[in-house]
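pasting for ref
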Amino acid sequence: MTSYTPKSILITGAAGFIASHVANRLIRNYPDYKIVVLDKLDYCSSLKNLLPSRSSPNFKFVKGDIASADLVNFLLITEEIDTIMHFAAQTHVDNSFGNSFEFTKNNIYGTHVLLEACKVASGQIRRFIHVSTDEVYGETDEDAVVGNHEASQLLPTNPYSATKAGAEMLVMAYGRSYDLPVITTRGNNVYGPNQFPEKLIPKFILLAMKGQPLPIHGDGANVRSYLYCEDVAEAFEVILHRGEVGHVYNIGTKKERRVIDVAKDICKLFSLDPDAVIKFVENRPFNDQRYFLDDQKLTNLGWSERTLWEEGLKKTMEWYTTNPNWWGDVTGALVPHPRMLMMPGIDNGSSGSSQQAVITKSNSQSRMVVRVPKSGSAGGVASPRKPSLKFLIYGRTGWIGGLLGKICEKQGIHYEYGKGRLEDRSQLIADIQNVKPTHVFNAAGVTGRPNVDWCESHKPETIRTNVVGTLNLADVCREHGLLLMNYATGCIFEYDAEHQEGTGIGFKEEDKPNFDGSFYSKTKGMVEELLNEFENVCTLRVRMPISSDLNNPRNFITKISRYNKVVNIPNSMTILDELLPISVEMAKRNLKGIWNFTNPGVVSHNEILEMYKTYIDPDFKWNNFTLEEQAKVIVAARSNNELDASKLKAEFPELLSIKDSLIKYVFEPNKKVHANGIA
């Protein structure tokens, strides 16, 4: 068996989970090896993961992106790199369903840049170890008794594994075309200290620590194999020194566990009742049932799994309970289906005095090397770096569009209003190319002035904006890989025999519209059905919107307080002060599909006006009239219904009922002192 001894190793992505354990191990065990770490410090990486190596003279950290060809070429030459261990990648499957282009950019293009730099280095690189995943094999048959071996066919089933398989093809091609000394690894799931909690085990541990439910995709019967991080680091140590060029090595274990059993084991560690805390949630678009590897080839090199499941899980639990704030605010990662842009408070230790910029000179060129400070350095961990959100909002002159801008300003989110008209595709494309948004919000639409009766006599204009324009925007966003948050309406339903007034049985997201009494509602129902064909759209059914601005003529309370007579029918309604910030959070979570965007429950016209009288004007009086009487003074019929908001409530448990929200967000801020003593 041949043995390889490197001199100068470049490890990409080594501020991340697995690679940091590998880097720390090599730095500790081989003081004669120079270890250069290249990492762009994305949301799931942190300089703190490299703290064990901070004082080692053979360690150097460079903050940068593997997609930067100039930087990679420069490092290979100036650091005299002879070995590359390529870990850097986007790895979370959930993220790949919501932002697949980012996976292509990082996993395929980034790998290609590295390979091309190695080709240019012309014989300097003696080992290129490419880190792939067991997921490139696709799903293993449930009854298979022999795992996938290294020559098995690659059949990836999700965008993440597809990009990893694509990167493998490039690695193989460069090995054959340019004699690059490549080795590829494909590993099972890894767990242990320092792992970012978007992954199953750290997520469940942190949720258990908080006493919150453990969300399981589907029925939890999916089977996975788990290796402890130190065992995996040892595997890479063995492959580095004993692996044969041109070969692939599976890093796996034959011990398999169902996801639900993992959850139960964690419940046991925290003395929790699994039946009480395990929560079954919607499955991924596709969730492989099983990955099973044959690791005999690696075993032949002398590696074996050392850490028992119970021992590794206990060590991991102890680390997270000792370091609960290692990653800062990870609220966005703990939801059932996290996305990259849901991670606003991640602490990767990349700013402030927790690192130093050291400028050195080499061959008349400058480079910046960022080192982890040695113990005793001044300062602490600085405020967390936030991923860059940028919203493109349509509907600047509208009520909701204007409020969205204010919310963005309050939250420090970059935003711009769209300049193009929705029906003009070229203008929408120009907006997206100029703004380069992460999300698009559509708050533009025709509702009519002063009300929906206007639409009855302006049908072409209504169609142009509500149907053609909305579909146009959805399609342009789809082509650019962007999520569209579309503010729609719930005024496409009417109480019927199955959803009777007063029963508390509301229309659900999957119910088909049953009301087209107004042309406005007809166009909205039509476009909602068509939008179902777009996987990049989040449709928010708004109803009878209310805000704390009681001077706004579009406010439902303002409207009915100025009418001579009102009907008295319970309806679902949307308190914008509470729900619009939730819509921004939904964008961060990359939520899609149809959502009843109302506060739970219903409230009648009279109940609202009673609150108005109590809090605002004790002398206020009003009269009721019937639907038949109302029909005589309006052109188009009006929708009355209750929407079932349980889906939204499950995603946002803090959401208030309609009456509680009215009091908190509308009437309390506007209450007047009057003779009856309300203050």
